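Q: A reviewer asked whether we had any structural model of the full assembly, not just the individual parts. We don't, so I'm hoping you can provide one. Inputs are below.
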Amino acid sequence: MDKNQILQSLTEKVKNFQSQAALEKIGTVFEIGDGIAKISGLTEVMAGEMIDFGDGIFGVALNLEEDFVGAIILGEYQAIKEGSVAKSTGRILEVPVGQNVIGRVVNSLGQPLDGKGVVKTDKFYPIEKIAPRVITRQGVNLPLQTGIKAIDSMIPIGRGQRELIIGDRQTGKTAIVIDTIINQKGQDVICIYVSIGQKEAKVARLIAELTAIGAMDYTIIVSAGASDPASLLYLAPFAGCAMGEYFMDQGKDVLVIYDDLSKHAVSYRQISLLLRRPPGREAYPGDIFYLHSRLLERAARLNKDYGGGSLTALPIIETQAGDIAAYIPTNVISITDGQIFLESDLFYQGIRPAINTGLSVSRVGSAAQIKAMKKVAGRLKLEMAQFRELAAFAQFGSDLDAETKGQINRGKRLTEVLKQGQYQPMSVENQTLILYAAINGYLDDVPVEKVSEFEKSFLAYAQSYGAEILAEIKKTKDLNEAAEKKLKSLISEYKKTLDYPEK
Amino acid sequence: MKLSAKQYASYLSEALESVSASQQNLVLANFVKLLAGNHQLSLWQKIINDFKNLYDKKNNVLAAQVKTPRPLAKEQKDELTKRLGRIFDKTVTLNETIDESLIGGPIILGNDFIIDASLKVRLNQLGRKISLENN
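A: Here is a predicted structure for the entire assembly that you could use as a starting point for your response.
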């Protein structure tokens, strides 16, 4: 385009332009500070309505009182002064949604943070929405594979479920959800990672990692960093959820990760205290439970009549020194459909992911497992439970009877099999194979330190010699008798190729 | 319990209505004494504001301010008063101020509303429209 053309098109546009002056409701700021503004006037403002302070600064009306409105300011508030004019917009706060948001890094308002230009979409969803009602829902019965052996076998997560991930700092909470995102590649699941109050460096590393693996093609990152104002931290999970709901309404499967809700609670506490709402236990406001329950209730699996989409929520809670009886952890534990417990003791023992399989549960349970996995998972849970009972005796090695010794040995090998490296999610077929081998005693004669080596080479062997078994499991999602027979002979065949001596 | 400016204003208007015109000065004097006794004289500005609002509301009057870059002609002013009266269904009193920095277009300001047709707002609208179309 040369410059005449540009000029011509501009003239055209200016010529056709009709400005409109509309009547707008206004108020005056009479108090400002700590990200909170008190505004007089603003008649007929709605709770949760966006307020325009001019110059692209917006706020949200949270407290509607007799003489004034208390509002949180989204972003910088240095430009707002006492006496500034605030306009009501008549719109509830909303975020851009749609296909074009995928692959982007945005803030709580849907504004881009990745320097790739504006998010081009004309669809908006309100960030606060009532969760899907009973008639629109159906039971959770499809698995959401995390690719982590310990989770998929013993604590299965279904599409539409809410599973809490809880643990101290540095126990690998984020690692689990990142592996889960990576494992959704090619599964037609849209992932939304909401970072609340995390270090920017951590988020940057995570984005780099996801980009390198190619997981950003189906992932949205909503980031409210540690230096962002509390108002943005408070809105971030709701914004992420709204973006997910759009895809759920389109009949797609969505995975939303809230990392983490303890910082979300802290930011909401700050806002509430500044708005002079009465504090309760641990100075959290009275509606902190409702804040999290209405957010997590928006996770759902819709039935066929409503498109059959789903939204799975994986909230994360960080505990202090393993104290799960604190206020926020107990709240979120009671809201979710189960929890995955991570312990620093296990982490330092080298059991990674450091999942405490005894305390972790999934209340949806085996309804969200494929049949093949169900066949191995039941026995695995039992063996692991027995092993935990007996683990204390393990140190008296020689004084035990043969049966107990056998159980301890089996348990040790199972623990070894359940270990898994970061960024190495495993397909459910492979998981079934190795767990089948372990649970049926094929690993009992493999030295404990050789187990991971065995696993690796066995799966490589199965890739070429047991391809039809893998294909069968993938297709039928079951391990029928014929396939089981083949699998048994495959394992025996493979063991013949091993060189380490049998005990 | 301390009373708010709003409450003072409404009590004052009630008291003033219930007495004859000759006694109103006495009521006012008593009111100031009461304020002083309650150590709330500093509220006077707010009370006057609230009283004005209350008075306007009772008499169905709307006090609006119009800011223009140039003085309005008599007909323009009448037309504006008439139209505003129709929108709000109230008797409108216009208070005109000149603000040359506007360059073009008027701004009509009320207690809790604004009708902004100034050049700045129109140019902003144009800018937004063009940037949206080019995306």
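A: Points you may want to mention in the reply: The longest strand of chain A covers residues 23-33. The longest helix of chain A spans residues 371-391.
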